[in-house]
């Protein structure tokens, strides 16, 4: 295989490297460019560990002349390190020639052999200490962009989200622990309680005041399933409690569905806050409704969406694990978990979560 420079691996080099791979008796194979060919220059047998041998490698190299050195690793010995030695003091033409040919070297000899590469501009760059620093650099986490850091913070908040205690309108201390324990404004608490005591289809929409970390009531009104998606803010996070009378199950029932909506365009800080508090808000709402002698049931699953427009009857039924046989005249109850996994219909494409 020829490089853009026209330089190719010689048959002598191909044979020398093949023998080195098969014998296991070569630690270093030095390669030079001569007469427009890559040729073997010198080979050295192992005399100790890789680190011990690396400290002897500088004796193979010259201060002003580039070279390639193929290095057999200790663990596993079937893998090789390719060192591209191009000293700063080398002639410009030589620098360009060796830089343009290094890809051809690895590809021609078999890229699978080379699991690592090292670029050196001086002999100090190929010592045991320098190689150890090189490996530490490879093992270190890659630097993240500002956007990636923000998204990682959001994910961390979601992982740490947990159930907070029910504080109610009379207790104003936050719980620091699993998730964010929000304070509930009295209007929000009363609206959720009244929602549980009702008998029709209705929606309670709440939001967080980030300055006080208080859950506020945004709106409370009768709302059918057909109007649900248009009632959820399209560009800001929110928590919604939707009272949904339906006959998908047998017997029919009225469920209170907790919906956490977090559009992708929301500010990252707000997304972190809502994500951390979502489980706490869900648990508190269940306590409020269960303590009010409500005949409605709270859906055991939360609904989460980044696109409020997908909130319709089919979406809720699918997310809540409700099953309705289209070929039967009667509705069926939700299937047990084992049956859901075996027979649940696959989710259709196009939904963003």
Automatic annotation (TrEMBL):
The biological process GO terms on file are: actin filament depolymerization; barbed-end actin filament capping
Region of interest (Disordered), ranges: 322-353
Q: Please list the GO terms describing molecular function.
A: actin filament binding; actin monomer binding
- Pfam annotation, one family: Cofilin_ADF
Q: Which UniProt keywords apply?
A: Actin-binding, Cytoplasm, Cytoskeleton, Repeat
* Subunit record text: Interacts with G-actin; ADP-actin form.
Protein known as: Actin depolymerizing protein
